[in-house]
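All the exercises in this workshop are built on plain-text protein records. A record pairs a protein's sequence with a compact description of its fold. The structure tokens are whole numbers drawn from a learned vocabulary of backbone shapes. Once this layout is familiar, the rest of the handout is easier to follow. An example says more than a description, so a record of this kind follows.
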Amino acid sequence: QVLTRLQRREYYRLRVPADRAFPCQVTVESADPLAEPRRYSLTAYDLSCGGIALTGYPPSLGPARGTIYRGARLVLPDLPAVTADLEVVHVQSAGGPEPARFGCRFIAASDGAQTLVQRFIHRVEREMRTRW
């Protein structure tokens, strides 16, 4: 009668609350060596020590699976910014109440970067528990 789907993940994933949303700045190099790189400021949708899902991107960005964004900068509230390379692993179109978003994994993120991400996740979880 009831089917439950369980998904195993290597890291705990936090859906970033709207009041704690933070930007992730992505730079895209142009194929033309004389052209300036384009910079996009996207919104974090969810976050884990393994990666991040981003939303609020313009159609001109056009993320595709396998694309690598070098030197993406996550601006975590009340913490130092985290810089990491991101590889797009999933792209989801907008549907119903869910926004269009794409998921990326961190590529060779430093221990310091992972520590800051973990600290942010713990802080938000603690704040959410005190509200209940």
Remarks:
- The mean pLDDT is 86.
- The beta strands are 14-15, 23-28, 38-47, 51-55, 68-74, 82-92, 101-107.
- The two ends are 32 Å apart (CA to CA).
